[in-house]
Design goal:
Shape: globular
Number of domains: 1
Radius of gyration: 14 Å
Mean pLDDT: 86
Order of helices and strands: EHEHHEEHE
Distance between the termini: 51 Å
Helix content: 25-40%
Low-confidence stretches: none
Number of helices: 4
Strand order of the largest sheet: 1-2-4-3-5
CATH topology: Translation Initiation Factor IF3
Length: about 110
């Protein structure tokens, strides 16, 4: 049995239309590191809409989404979870930060 490859891809979120491209990548099983500052510099409201849509979509597929620093988010497909603070604290590592209730980067 041959399996299709899973890729880790870095993509920019430059406009609201990019959300559909990102959703397609997650749907096919790829792991994405998305730079959100290009859109955040243009529109805080559109950035919030994009992140909300990506969060809802990713969770509906059984995937995961988290913030990576100030400029990026990571999105994983079903079956792949982002290692979070709760697990990291017990092991002394630097965790990913939950995406909800976070300020939009580039807007301070």
């Amino acid at each position: 049995m041959q399996h299709s490859s899973i890729y880790v891809k870095a993509l920019p979120l430059q406009e609201l239309d990019d959300v559909e491209i990102i959703k397609g990548e997650v749907r096919t099983g790829n792991i994405l590191i998305v730079r959100i500052t290009p859109l955040a510099r243009k529109s805080v409201e559109e950035t919030k809409l994009a992140i909300t849509e990506l969060t809802d979509y990713t969770k509906s597929l059984g995937g995961d989404i988290a913030r990576l620093g100030e400029e990026r988010i990571v999105i994983t497909p079903a079956g792949v979870k982002v290692w979070r603070k709760e697990a990291a604290l017990s092991e002394g590592a630097i965790p990913a930060v939950p995406i909800q209730n976070e300020a939009v980067p580039g807007t301070r």
